[in-house]
Amino acid sequence: AFDLDEQGNLTGLSIFRNNEPQLMERRVAFVEDGILYLPLGDVQKITGIGFALDEETQVYTVTLPAAP
């Protein structure tokens, strides 16, 4: 959840998982063209989704958590 102030700046950022507030290590985020961008490390920690970049091919491999 977040709000935008009159200048379009992001305010009041909160992240919830299963209705529980999640701690963000770095409270850095921004909105551009209507898309919310969050730090990759926080996204990985909160969602359990892993991202690995192959430096040579510049291809990301995405690992999803196992279903419960």
Task: Describe the protein in words.
It is a single chain. The protein is mainly beta. It has one helix at residues 40-47, and strands spanning 3-4, 10-11, 16-17, 20-21, 30-32, 35-37, 50-54, 59-63. The chain has a two-stranded antiparallel ribbon with strand order 1-2. The protein has a two-stranded antiparallel ribbon with strand order 3-4. It has a two-stranded antiparallel sheet with strand order 5-6. The mean pLDDT is 87.
**Gyration radius over CA:** 14 Å
Oligomer: single chain
Mean pLDDT: 87
Give the number of DSSP strands.
Answer: 8
How far apart are the termini?
25 Å
- Uncertain runs: none
What profile does the largest beta sheet have?
Answer: 2 strands, antiparallel
Structural class: mainly beta
Form type: flat
What share of residues are in beta strands? Answer: 35-45%
Please give the order of strands in the largest beta sheet: 1-2
Q: Helicity level, as a percent range?
A: 10-25%
How many helices? The count is 1
H and E string:
EEEEEEHEE
Summarize the structure.
The chain is mainly beta and 68 residues long.
